[in-house]
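writing this on my phone so excuse typos. first protein, seq and then structure
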Amino acid sequence: MNRREFIIKTNSYAIFCTPVLCARSATLVAGALLPFDANTLASLRKTHAGKPFVIAFWSLYCEPCRDEMPEWNAVKRKHPSLPILLVSTDTPADRALIDAFFVKYPPGAVQKWVFADAFSERVRYSVDKSWRGEMPKSYFFDAAHRVEVKSGRVDRAWIEAWATRVSAKPQ
């Protein structure tokens, strides 16, 4: 297995895939925790070409991140076609803790990802060269992939306004 190939593990089986194929398989594997590495954002931009999407970075040890989970759940229910990707900046070794976190603070029907590189700075730099690790950190991509970046907890009213705006007009 090379460094661009991963295995999605579930309770009963595993799927061997690349990050893009893992993302496309996420709907087939309930609860899949997908690998997010330094090349994933570029792949996601291709996968979501011409469509808006949201990436929100969080951590097990971030209290505002925990408080933000109900917001993602509510937005996903109101805008079910909007891809929302929650990316844990923890490691795949924290899978049990991440799963327990999602049980306690359910974010709804969103894609769940985890940093796949132990050198987190490399992954952060690939997303945003100015990102120093503050969380939560959210990236809102419109259909043309112009991005609005929010550091800290984003309130539901702002997310709703953004989602309505990008869903209402062609880009």
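second protein below, same order as before
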Amino acid sequence: MKPTLLILAAGIGSRYGGIKQMDKIGPSGESIIDYSVFDAIKAGFGKVVFVLNPKIIKDFKAVYEPRLSGKIETAYVLQEIDNIPAGVSFNPERIKPWGTGHAVLVAKEVVNTPFAVINADDFYGREAFEVISAFLSERGNAETHYAMVGYQLENTLSENGSVSRGICSTKNSLLTDVVERTKIYRTEGRIVFEEEDKENPIDEKSLVSMNFWGFTPKYFEQSEAGFADFIRENAQQLKAEFYIPYVVNKLITKGDADVRVLESHDHWFGVTYQEDKPVTIAKVKELVQNGVYPENLWK
């Protein structure tokens, strides 16, 4: 049973200033998504599911359906703000959907194998897809043995501003806790995270989550219960989000699941900021020149 790749591509990119999911960074017009799907196919994934914003789905499908036709099975789902449990009303002034945990949930009806979750705008490297594909290929749909690909913090920073990362604690290669830090950056030769306007130092070797998870379909059932509680408590909030680590921490704490940490030694890069784009283009060009990728992925 081949695993499924679930790509979270519903964000509009307020810090980036555009629809970065489709931004061209490869020599033949490829986006980061193209490289992720290419690596996933090589690693043995059999299907890709895109979670999209209604505003971009038409343009998105026009680009990716021709590219991926005949190469991998595809499906598209929408993350919409009103996709919440019946009988719950939310603040009419809210604009954003409900976060990464909610984005995973909206794909429930089209994912029927163990699956990996990634962000659309992060370049994870081939090693990550290989290790998580091997893990998922051994899982049954009802298992609660999950996985996360972890990176060293120093390999995941942007030179152009702060980033959000899940700081991980582990024991015997199993995840024990993830703490979401939303403002991490380098300053004066050290790495810090900002909280309540105070800078706090953090070890550059810290293991972090880049939102690369491996689950089975059992996860939908488990996270659905958590989202029902979350939305009842936060429906009137304008910015509260249901993050994947929120679900994972609860499952670990209750003993309802375990999460194996699969470490990657690759350097992350991506397009959090518009200024990241030239750096990303240069890094992809180098990978092509070194023979890691062909000049035209889908030729």
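Residues 192 and 201 are 4 Å apart (CA to CA). thats all i got for now
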